[in-house]
Amino acid sequence: MKFLALAAAALLSTSALAAEPLKKTDAGFVDAAGMTVYTFDKDVAGSGKSACADGCLKNWPAVAASGALAAPWSAITRDDGSKQLAYKGKPLYLFVGDKKAGDRNGDNVKEIWHVAKD
Predict the structure, then answer these.
(1) Which domain covers residue 111, as residue numbers?
(2) How many domains are there within the chain?
(3) pLDDT band, very low/low/confident/very high, at 18 (cuts 50, 70, 90)
């Protein structure tokens, strides 16, 4: 029983130490370089899958996931085995049309791409 209590405490302290993978701004989430992060309406939250593949990924690269993640952050495994960051179960992407930090050129593209917000 003591072992279970110690294991639970270790898990709680590990998740408490997990860093926020993205920075929250007034406009939405950005990565470490200040590049805007997007969601795709065709993705189903919590499905563990991305609807953006092949040619789509050329314009909307997946945000890579690494390290320990705590809710509401998670990672999905893409078909190629890479890990993609997700927020509240929705995979996250960058947009090649954003050239500098703070650009939001991908917001509302085709009315299915949106800046990721809380």
Answers:
(1) 2-115
(2) 1
(3) low
